[in-house]
Amino acid sequence: MKLGTEEPFVSIIIPTHNSEKTIEKCLESIFNINYPREKFEVILIDDSSDSTPIIAQRFPVVLYTLKAKPGKKRNFGVKNAKGTIIAFIDDDCFVTKDWLYEIVRSFRSPDIGSVGGPNLTPPDDKLLGKCLGIVLSSNIGSGGLRYARIYNEERFVDHNPTCNCAVVKKYFQEVGGFREDIWPSEDVEFDIRLRKAGYKLLYNPRAIVWHKRKDTFKDIFKMIFRYGRNRVKISRIHREALKPIHVLPSVAFLLYCFSLTLAFLQVKHFFELSTLLTITYFAPIFIYSIRVIKRKLSMLPLLIVTFCLVHLAWALGFIIGVLDEIK
């Protein structure tokens, strides 16, 4: 899609669920953007049991009620959207003033189907949330996966997460929208189809949102476990979705468990092997953590634990995903 001289009308779609703690700040940030008010609408698709809809109705939003997973909610929102461009964010995201302007101006040619940007950890997030942000934005934590990666320049990417992306509505409909039997990672699967249809995905480092991170061990584990599990499901649909980095945590985990078991049984050399594997795993994490936190040494133990939690959750999720496919 190539823009004309006037700003296009944009539909901002937000699936919501029990987001009373974040939705007000989210909507306040949207209605303070540097983009003509008459040129965008905000559509909320909600199934909350808390005060989310009451808070949302304080703003000029289009509010629908639909009990469904986020992919189905977003599809519903697109069907009812007026915009030629569809922008997606999450209900725990807060946009910067130039966010939508930067998104829209990036649709410079008809072969650009999607534009996204960085989703950054808010400065006021809890310590565990900040640790998760560091882990997800690092190669050693996420294997270079796109989700929370930060780049300094515009570039074409394989994936724009729906916490911060926009899609040309016509192209969205052309490839069939989100699969409603996948969650999470339905946006990963959608982007594969979008690229197969010949469209490019652009990353604009100036299209910034702040994304509140999960801040309990339980929530972090559940989120990453689901990502690992559904990567297997997506890979069954699109073989190119599976890369060695997706398999590595599970292989390393199984190898380590095998080595520890034999070391416990006092099988010759396996104590040494287990020690070597432990050092090989923790050394780069420790070095990276020291470098990134600089003088904030109080973060070090929690950051290392967060690295381990993310790796373990993905490994177990991926293993369960493989077992799901075998059944």
CATH class of the largest domain: Alpha Beta
| pLDDT < 50 stretches | none
Backbone shape: globular
How many helices does DSSP assign? Answer: 12
**Rg over CA atoms:** 21 Å
CATH-scheme architecture of the largest domain: Alpha-Beta Complex
Secondary-structure content class: alpha/beta
How many strands? 11
Helix-residue proportion: 40-55%
> What share of residues are in beta strands?
5-15%
Q: Can you list the strand order of the major beta sheet?
A: 3-2-1-4-9-6-10-8
How many strands, what sense, and barrel or not for the largest sheet? 8 strands, mixed
Number of domains: 2
Q: What is the CATH topology descriptor of the largest domain?
A: Spore Coat Polysaccharide Biosynthesis Protein SpsA, Chain A
Pattern of helices and strands: EHEHEHEEHEEHHEEHHEEHHHH
List key phrases describing it:
alpha/beta; single chain; 327 residues; 3-stranded mixed β-sheet; 2 domains; 11 strands; 12 helices; 8-stranded mixed β-sheet; Spore Coat Polysaccharide Biosynthesis Protein SpsA, Chain A
